[in-house]
Fold each of these.
Amino acid sequence: MGSVLAASTAEEFEAVRRHAISTRNGAGFFTQPIGIWKPPVNSAIKINFDAAWKNHEAGLGVVMRNQNKDFCYGFASKRCCNSALNSETEAAIEALRCAWTILPLLEEIRRLSAGFSDVEWRWIPRGANRVAHVTAAIGLRAVCPQGWANQPPPSLVRVLASDGLPSPP
């Protein structure tokens, strides 16, 4: 079954390659229409992937975006591959691995966000997000989860004060 599927996939790839060759203009260059990325519909996540292959090395790339054209996740790596077809299939495999890794997390974010009347997501430069960054660093060193109500830990007091907030008593 695997060899039949591989042969079918190779035949499909070859048919697409032949079509691309037949679309060359007189100067020997491809004249393909300029494509514009289109977002997915119905709050789906669209996964684009590609591979660049040269001398038995492949660069693999995966990008996920939502219906608002927001970047959700990206991945890049280098692999040894024996052909361009092999590198493209490796990129497809990585795209699916990324989907199985990140999509359940995105679904959980959607589910939890639905409990609020308004949720806004923005990228904030680290300089304006220092408290969250320092808190994440505390989490990285923590042995167990930590939480604070009304009184931040001493390591956050100075960072909070640098944001212009009053220091806790």
Note: The radius of gyration is 24 Å.
Amino acid sequence: MPKETNRPDADAQAFRTWLAEELRKSDYDVDDPRAGVQTRLGAELGVSQSSISRLLRGQGKPDIGLLTALSRHLAIDLRELLIRSGRVAETDLPAPGAPTAPPRGSLTPEEAADGLGITGEDKDLFTAWVRRLRGGASH
């Protein structure tokens, strides 16, 4: 399980600065306290204004749910948000584009057909041929 990192204050400030810039890119006026950014963003994400306030002040580690909502809403890579926020270390996550672990065990012919979107009579033919190619073994 990934470990949360203990961000020093400098890292918290760096995250806060980076996030403010990302919000500006999405037309949120984070520089004007009267702009209502906390209320607006909280309503759009379905979280409290106080959660947004803590996030924008760099207080504490943001909740994973909040980071996920931000990722979707602002079209920011979740991996980048998790790392920059200090929730996980970069080494705890696979690199972008890295292959994922293969499934455990072998697939049955039926599971392979389902995964390939083969249905009906074609599925029956596919599974029969796979079994025949495997030497008649029933997997």
Note: Helices lie at 9-25, 37-45, 49-57, 64-74, 78-85, 109-116, 120-133.
Amino acid sequence: MEMQEYDFTLKFKLQETHTDPNDYVEALEREGCDDALVGVGSKGKIGLNFIRFASSEYQAIYSAIRDVKKAIPNAILTEVMPFSRIGATHHPIIPPFQRGVRGDIL
């Protein structure tokens, strides 16, 4: 299957709000999230806008969630927003990711 580029945003709630956000950025880069623009503007939250190559949108999002969870194990996924829905009136998607499909990643 041909690899395609997928653009999406993931938002997480952070359990450890006292940690320096730069520590998260470095950990994310080490765990393979170097294809994301990281936003840490709100205390206790982090957002990542990914442009990731994968065989499907699901695989791109799933692998990004997995990589974030390796870098920040206690992060709680709060929002998944595919590029096609950014700026639209649609609600963000979370299932099946929130339910931990294909392993308990959340």
Note: The chain has two helices and four strands.
